[in-house]
Amino acid sequence: MMTSSTSEKPLVELTKGVNGLEKVILREVRGSSAEVYLYGGQVTSWKNDLREELLFVSSKAIFKPPKAIRGGIPICFPQFANRGPLESHGFARNRFWSIDKDPPPFPASTSSRAFVDLILKPFEFRLRVALSPAGDLMLTSRIRNTSTDGKPFAFTFAYHTYFSVSDISEVRVEGLETLDYLENKERFTEQGDAITFESEVDKIYLSTPTKIAILDHEKKRTFVIRKDGLPDAVVWNPWDKRAKAIADFGDEEYKHMLCVEAAAVEKPITLKPGEEWRGRQELSAVPSSYCSGQLDPKRVLLGS
Ligand code: TA6
């Protein structure tokens, strides 16, 4: 495991988490960190350099197979929700992944030294979770069709990210205005305004921009999601009634979470034998003085 010259703790550490499940801790020298469980290949923690947790994990999360961990970044693969014959959201989130000791090289070089490569067999689903020196969290999935029977492989996919928010009624999402979305399999068009929350939301926005912002008014924090290879974006908050029906989710926890999910849902990705797909999500959390008008949320979306 890699160690940093300035700190005692290793940049990448394999250790035990809840119920003895193996997890990898990533640390950057300025203080940010992330945790990834081999169970589900699931990120369960992402902290900024002030050690503030940026992801939501339910206090009722069950860290025990076959239940998927409620919170963090579950990976929905090879099926999103119930859009196919498999169990809801597929099985990647409740399988044990392995550390990929010899991954093929990444095309883009990265300045990140705190990263881990995981693999889900027998799919050749390779996942790199990396923390940048600035504390950005990057997930890159590479999925290859290794079949020898000449058959194509089709799948849907989502990084089902649970963001931690101070108060859902003070949150707005920018970047999805005027887009088409699916709700209960029907197609609608979003109005011109930023999305705010006052009841259950479960929508799949289609052909979305590569950048989406979540503005947390109370925390004065803006999450920026940058995505590549993932045209859709799912927005989910169960609100009070639905929350009560979810066993591993606290009745009031809906107030402190929001899922915004970089996804490929409407049009399944199809790989011919030998083909590889790459889907990437990059998360940043920036302080925003949005409420005092110093930061125009549109600039967060327009800036690089
Ligand atoms: O991504 C939104 C969604 O598909 C919702 O419909 C909701 O059920 C949620 O995911 C959670 O699903 P889960 O299977 O984890 O309970």
TrEMBL record:
Reaction catalysis annotation: alpha-D-glucose 6-phosphate = beta-D-glucose 6-phosphate
Single GO cellular component term: cytoplasm
Gene3D superfamilies tied to this protein: 2.70.98.10
InterPro entries referenced in this protein's UniProt entry, alphabetically: Aldose_1/G6P_1-epimerase, G6P_1-epimerase, Gal_mutarotase_sf_dom, GH-type_carb-bd
Enzyme class, spelled out: isomerase
EC number: 5.1.3.15
Family affiliation: Belongs to the glucose-6-phosphate 1-epimerase family.
One record GO biological process: carbohydrate metabolic process
Single GO molecular function: carbohydrate binding
SUPFAM superfamilies assigned to the protein according to its UniProt record, in alphabetical order: Galactose mutarotase-like
Designated name of the protein: glucose-6-phosphate 1-epimerase
Catalytic machinery residues: 160, 261
UniProt keyword list: Isomerase
Pfam family of the protein (one): Aldose_epim
Recorded superkingdom: Eukaryota
Keyword Isomerase belongs to the record: yes
